Each structure stands twice: as structure tokens, then as C-alpha cells.
Amino acid sequence: MRPQQAVAAFDSASAMLRVLSRHLHGDSSPTLGLGPTARLAGPVLLPWVNRLPAALRERAYAWSGQLEAVGQDRLGHVDMEDVARWVAGHYPRGRGPAVMIGSTSGASIHLAALAGVPWLPQTVLVPVRHRGLHPDEPRAAVGGLASARAAILTANPTVGLHHMHDANQDRLMIRRMAYFRLKYRRLPAAYADFLRARLQPGGTVLVADCGQRWPTTATGERQVFQHGAVGGLTAEEYAEGGPRVARFLAQQGSPCSRWDAPPPDTSSPEAEWGFDPALLPDLARLCEQEGWRLERLRFEHPDTLSAPVARIYRDWFAERGIAPDRLLVGCFALLDVHLPLRQGRVPYWTTFGTRSARDTLLDHLADGPDYDEIDLGLFSHGTCSAGLANIEDWDEVLRLARHRGDYCGVDRDVYPQDFASNVRFHAQLAARGPAAPVPHPAPWEWVRRSLQQLPDPAVTYLVEDSA
């Protein structure tokens, strides 16, 4: 089975792989870097979808995801070694001082873009088609997909499977598909070959190590079930319910007032964002054999790096005489790492459009950096999920711009069902034009030193010769 047929194009890891690799090829990422068909069809189809009634927009969104899902009878043909070769094949040839590997984070992708280094994801999403499991019955999802989990793991003995079920944020998608997030626990041969071909002698393998964890239920060898995910609700609310859960389910017309999920029996690296340290021994052995430095950038949550990376960009701009006073806020998979460097914009990444993400951004702005301009993109996931910040909440961010605060590609009237924003974000950003192109890439040793000197206690740079 071809990797691009197995791996979800709509996922965070896939989108970030595309935008970073396009940047390293010298290009920006219209329509999330999805290619010429999406770039041609998106501007026509997505605005049309935005004009549909809300219920039809939801169906269109769920249908678009289901088209990418893998039939359960084909899961035994998903080859994660092939997926690794496909990932590595995105990048241009040539040697460099470092390669990043590990967790998905928009902030770390902006960091890789500044340094001009590639990133190899540990985690990819394989969406699995099913015949219809109610999103509010996670226990049924565990039992109904047991054979599917076994099939993909039997074919791939070196990965771990995190079956993620989030009826809050992914409600529309999981009506007809399941989220199987696969994490490399052993270093794929294609990744090892890439490191040998891409790294200069004495180079650095930098592990992006997100410490985000989540309560999980063991469902077999190398597999766990994760009820809920990082976003607008806490792990406790997913497990025990509460006023916000009950209110959300009532708004959705659900017969449930809370979710009946299997009780968690362990804590695991979070399915989408967390780093599984089982990969470290293979990396340590390879680095020792090849004479490379093995280093780790540890951060607590996927967006913990956002403010520190914005600070590093500001320092790089200022040292080159470019005013670091234009902020670009991206959201989830809605980001472009190329245009900020072409236009002299400081990037800041939010995990989702939740109230907590908005508050974290406000904390960053309150800590001192003043921006003349703020451009804000918001990813639409189709559901007014519990914990989502409304558009008036985001207006508060834009009011902090000293001269101009604007949404970038966002239709305030239809958010969070503004599916055309995936097209408009890049088009509007590109049309705003460069203020001052920024010299890049930054020297790796400058980036490395900046990371080591970060004052944030939630971010740690570790230099290790072995795991």
C-alpha cells in the first residue's frame, strides 16, 4: 500500500512535514502544501462549502476525512518502513549540521525552518474506516476495532499504536473513522539512511521531546487506547464528566451526559504530541557509531516552545537590523514556515483554537514583546467543541497590536466551520507582501546556543552521548 494512501494528509504531522520540506526546497505552502490539485480545486470548492447550511458543512467535512481513511481489510498492507522512506523523500539532498527527529510541534517546525534543517516525525496518523460507531461510546470503539489494531501491529512489529478517540474535538471525523496514531519505537532503516546521507561529520541529531502524557488503557502488546486528547477539556473531564461535558453533549443532541470509557490503567506519551523514549537507544547507538552528537530539546506541552521560538526569531531579526514587530499566529496545521522568513514576521504557534491556547498567547504578549502588527490564523475543525475560544475571545488578541491587528483568512461569521480558511490563510498572507526578507538559515551553532540559553524552566536542552 502506498504510504500517501495510508497516512492522513489532514494530520498535524503530515502538514508540518509538507510545509517544512517545501521551505527547504525554497517555496511556501499554499493550501497546507497539499499539491497542485488542492491548490487548483481548493479556491473553488471550499468557499462553496462555506456557503452550505451548518449541517451540510459538517457532513462535507466528515466526508472529506472519510475519503482518506484506510479500509480495515487493507491494514495488513500498511508498511511503516515504506512510510519512513516516503517521509525522508520529501527533503532535498545535501548535507547539513543537524537533523531534528521526534515530536510534532508547530513551534519546533518554525525552529527547524530558521535553522534550515529537516525534521523526521516519530508519529503519523493512519485513519481507519469503520461502519459507524457512535462518537459518545468509546468503550464500543475499543471492542469494535480490536481486530483492526491487531492487523496493523502484526504487520509492523517495531511501532506502538495509540488508538485515540476524542468525541469533543474530532467529533465529526470519528463518526466514520478511527484515529490510529503509530509511533516508531525502533529507528526505521530509512531514517538511519537519511541521517547518514544528510548529516555532516560531527553533526547533531536533535530529539524534539515533548513530555505531554495522557491516561490510557492497555489493549494489548504495544497498543493503548486514549480517550480524549489535548485541547479544550482536561483528562479528568473526559474520564469523569462534569458541567462542561454535559453541556456540550446536550448541545450535540447526544443521549449521553458523560462518556463511558474503559478506565485508564497507565499513563502514556500523548498520542499526537508526546515523545516515546523507546526510540532513544537506537538513536544513541547510531550516533555513537557515526560520531554525531545526540541532543534533546525537552518541553512539557506541544505549545511550550511557542514563546521561546518567537523570542529566538526576534533575536535573529534584531541582530540583522530588522524590526521584530510583526507577529504571525498560526494554529494547528494552519501554518507556513517560509513566508515569515520572507516577510520578516515573528511566528507564534497555537496548538488549537481553544480558550487555553488563547490565554497562553495573551500571557506571551503580556510578558513584554510589543508588536505593531498581528496577523492571526485560526484552524477550523468543524465543531463548537467544549473549551473552544469564540471569535470575540480572539478579538482581544488583535486589539493588542499597536497599529494593525487582522485575521488572516478567517471568516468570522462561519468559524469554526470556516473550511475555506485553509486556502485563504496562505493567499492573504502572501498578498500582504514582504517588509524585510530575513537572511536564513541561521547558523546551527547560533540556534543551538540560543536554545541552551533559554530562561524558560519548561524547556530544557540536554546534551547526551547515550540514551
Describe this structure in words.
By secondary structure, the protein is of the alpha/beta class. The chain is 38% helix and 20% strand. The strands form 3 sheets. It has a 6-stranded mixed sheet. A 5-stranded mixed sheet has the order 2-1-6-10-15, sandwiched between helices. Strands 12-11-13-14 form a 4-stranded parallel sheet. β13, α16 and β14 form a beta-alpha-beta unit. α2 packs parallel to α6.
Keywords:
single chain; 467 residues; alpha/beta; six-stranded mixed beta sheet; five-stranded mixed beta sheet; 38% helix
Mean pLDDT over the full residue set: 92
Number of helices in the DSSP assignment: 18
Determine the structural class based on helices, strands and strand pairing. Answer: alpha/beta
Weakly predicted, low-confidence segments: none
Shape: globular
What portion of residues is helical? 25-40%
Strand order within the widest sheet?
3-5-4-8-7-9
CA gyration radius, whole angstroms: 21 Å
Distance between termini?
34 Å
Q: What can be said about the biggest beta sheet? A: 6 strands, mixed
- How many beta-strand runs? 15
Strand content: 15-25%
